[in-house]
Amino acid sequence: MKSRRGPANTLTHRAVTSASAFHLASVSKTFTSVAILQLYEKGKLKLNDPVKKYIPELGNGAITIRQLLTHTSGLIDWQILEKSYQQDTSKIFTLKDIPSAINNHKDAFRSTPGEKWSYSNSGYNLLAIVVERIANAPFQDYLSKNIFKPAKMSNTYISTPLIKVSDPNRVTGYDYLNFAPWVLQRADSLKHNQIELLHLDGLVGMGNVVSTAGDLLSFDKALYEGKIIKKATLDLAYTPIRLNNGELAVTGWKNTTSYFGLGWCILKDTTLGKVVFHTGGMPGAVTAFIRNISKNQTVIVLNNITHRSTHGTAMSLMYLLNGGAAQTDKKSIANEFTRTLIKYNLNDAWARFNSIKADTAHFSMDEREMNVAGIGMFYNNYKVQAMEVLRLNTVLFPGSANIYDSLAMALADSGDKKMQY
Length: 421
Fold this sequence. Notes:
Elements: E1 7-9, E2 14-15, E3 22-23, H1 29-41, H2 65-69, H3 82-87, H4 98-104, H5 121-135, H6 139-148, E4 157-158, E5 174-177, E6 180-186, H7 194-199, E7 209-211, H8 213-225, H9 231-237, E8 250-253, E9 256-260, E10 265-267, E11 275-282, E12 285-292, E13 297-303, H10 309-321, E14 331-332, H11 333-343, H12 346-356, E15 363-364, H13 367-378, H14 383-396, H15 401-414
Parallel strand pairs: 14-15
Antiparallel strand pairs: 1-2, 3-7, 4-7, 5-6, 8-9, 9-10, 10-11, 11-12, 12-13
Helix pairs in contact: 1-5, 1-6, 11-12, 11-13, 13-14, 13-15, 14-15
């Protein structure tokens, strides 16, 4: 296992070592998938069971376990918790808050179950509740007993603000100010990260697994050897799912297009063999766990700095392993627009935006990047420019409720009760 190492903590100058433990972000979802599939193997649940069978207080009776695993339930993401957060801005959310938040949100489902593929962390929170209800144990205890220990992952655990684990090898997470990438700060020190890193960080199922590169390689080995789940079940997990109209669900980022199975992405490009993977990203952590199951090749990339090109780098390593070329990572339109806006002025920013928006070969448009950049600017004394970014995002992605919420939050904090254009 070869590795490239950087700083684990910039203040103490502690370097990353083979023992360094990283927040896995959404790579954690692979463990949730394995947990559900273990219960499926034991006959404790069926994949087409309605979720309501295990969470009777959940209002929607149509969504199934399979649809949660495959992100086809139609359930929205963190927006379900906005009303509760507004009522108590000091609250740290846990799994028990999820069912009622879904029931109380009039637009909790953006589409009919099975109609579309739409990523939902909240769906994986529901899966964690299902595991707890069936196993009659906390989610973290189930993972420790049934996955981490059998796979010999001795340095892997769940950590949240409410589940505190002391680990001297835990790295510190850092984040760039989106509009000023040369400014590096602790991710938890930036105001625009506080909701995600504190209030939402009490949740499990969707993230909050901490691990090392060595432990992930042990997990990889345990999957191949059938120590924690049967090969036939994994084959099922690695099978692309179909939507109600019969089409395969497709997702992807930058230059990577993939299908989606039961908690795993399946690379559409089969020239390397069958490649399955999951990536993760949050303030202070960007991760990738890529497995070429045709050739027993594994790429693990763990970054404690918010740098989205990490995903492209990880996939490029898999291509290079097989004699191919590294993928060219697309530049972010959000970064180009916001940096130009800060360095020059609005007219120059719009000119830059208009000159690159159609160049999809070299630039990518990402709703979340634009949203986070706008919020980051707003809370770092660039309020006027931030409003331009947030307003632009509503034009680019008019169907997203989240970006309107961000704009409304900024308007409320600035005292603008009636937005003027």
